[in-house]
Specification:
This protein is an alpha/beta fold. The chain has helices at residues 2-19, 28-33, 35-48, 83-95, 100-111, 134-142, 150-162, 165-172, 203-219, 225-234, 259-262; strands at residues 53-61, 64-71, 115-121, 127-133, 176-182, 185-192, 239-246, 253-258.
């Protein structure tokens, strides 16, 4: 889940670069003049997300608007983010921030045949750059989620969330963990050798166990939390579900946690 958060934060940063620019003036000088203002916005966002962002920068390098994001969290691997997912999140943000400022910047990039270039880097030395030209930005504003490689995006998000399984196995000495998006939930099924490993638990205590894990993660997302939830909701994820079972299938406990419970 943290990986998704990092992606959201990085995309928000990119869109701040777009939406912070004032309308009215045209040409490359408009973007150049706003670079200091954009850098200030990025620094503010970085301060609000200290557990995620190690550094940010923004500059106008004719004809492009370049934004760089460096992550501090060692669990992040930027190679796990597909271009389809980046553009899906970008479209989500654009649709929520339409108006004169966005129109002015897209039109300026279009006139100069420039792009928004978003560069992501992690603590492992990996980096990726995603370039989106003005024509594609215009499309992203108009296209519906199902027209934005929806199935591929859902698969990518599922893979990212499934990467949490080893941590859940280690935390409670489970034998196996499987992830799937099912019935409106991000569902983790942990299988134990014997049911005796969790005999002391019931639905309520299992819910409490994982709320103690999930809630702090979401609280740490800060101002980006609404966007993260919006992304997951758009992919038909309305919360989390944890299931405990044993190899013989003698006892199963299920605990569902909708957003309402997570956000309390």
């Amino acid at each position: 889940m943290k990986k998704i958060a990092h992606l959201i934060i990085a995309t928000v940063v990119g869109m701040l670069a777009l939406c912070s620019c004032g309308g009215g003036s045209k040409g490359p000088s408009a973007l150049e003049a706003q670079s200091e203002r954009i850098a200030g916005d990025l620094e503010a966002l970085s301060q609000e997300s200290p557990k995620f962002l190690a550094g940010t920068s923004a500059e106008y390098a004719a004809p492009n608007l370049n934004v760089s994001i460096e992550f501090a969290d060692t669990t992040v691997n930027v190679n796990s983010y597909t271009e389809a997912l980046v553009q899906y999140v970008l479209a989500q943000y654009l649709k929520n921030h339409t108006g004169a400022n966005l129109d002015a910047v897209i039109n300026t990039l279009s006139a100069e045949k420039g792009s928004l270039n978003l560069r992501l880097s992690d603590t492992h030395g990996n980096s990726r750059e995603y370039g989106v030209n003005a024509g594609r930005l215009k499309q992203l504003v108009k296209l519906k989620p199902m027209e934005l490689s929806f199935n591929d995006v859902r698969t990518n998000v599922s893979d990212i969330m499934a990467a949490k399984c080893p941590a859940y196995i280690a935390a409670h000495n489970a034998a196996d963990c499987e992830f799937e998006i099912k019935g409106g939930f991000a569902q983790y099924t942990l299988t134990f050798e014997r049911a005796s490993a969790y005999n002391s638990l019931n639905q309520g205590s299992l819910t409490g166990r994982y709320l103690k894990v999930i809630k702090p993660e979401y609280e740490a997302f800060g101002a980006c939390r609404p966007m993260i939830e919006e992304l997951l909701r758009s992919l038909s994820i309305d919360g989390y579900r944890f299931i405990y079972t044993d190899k013989k299938g003698t006892k199963t406990i299920s605990a569902g946690m909708p957003w309402r419970l997570i956000n309390e």
